[in-house]
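# nightly structure sweep
# worker-07 picked up a monomer target from the shared queue
# config: single-sequence mode, recycle default, output format = structure tokens
# input follows
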Amino acid sequence: MRLMKATRWTMMAGLAATLMLSYPANKAVAAAPKAPEGAMFGFQGSDLDFDLINHTGYQIKAVLVSPSRQADWSYNNDVIKGRRFNDGEKLHITFNHHAHAEHWDLKVVYDNNSSKEWDDLNLDRIHKVTLWYDHRTDKTRAEIE
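# output follows
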């Protein structure tokens, strides 16, 4: 039984990776995290997809999205997979239909390796996140809609 579950997860991860590589530059797919033993997938009718808009004035080299309960960041959760997310661009982040967490964390990493995080986002209720950088305060903020 465990072998069947492991094989099924391996196949889904491979499919998710294939889908991520086939999307155009302005689309990204967030892979589903591994479900805990016995967990059910998804919230019925949930829509985790959202648009991320970069108005920081800087290029972003990684956009990480992971369930809030995950302790550490993993570049396996980078939805742009080595592409660049330029200032003024919009990225539509589409979730694998097996994604099942209610709250998510978002991290962006800039070319100079500085980063900014937003935690505990309820993506069921969010359709757009616009990132802004304020040169006066040297802070990045997110406008969440």
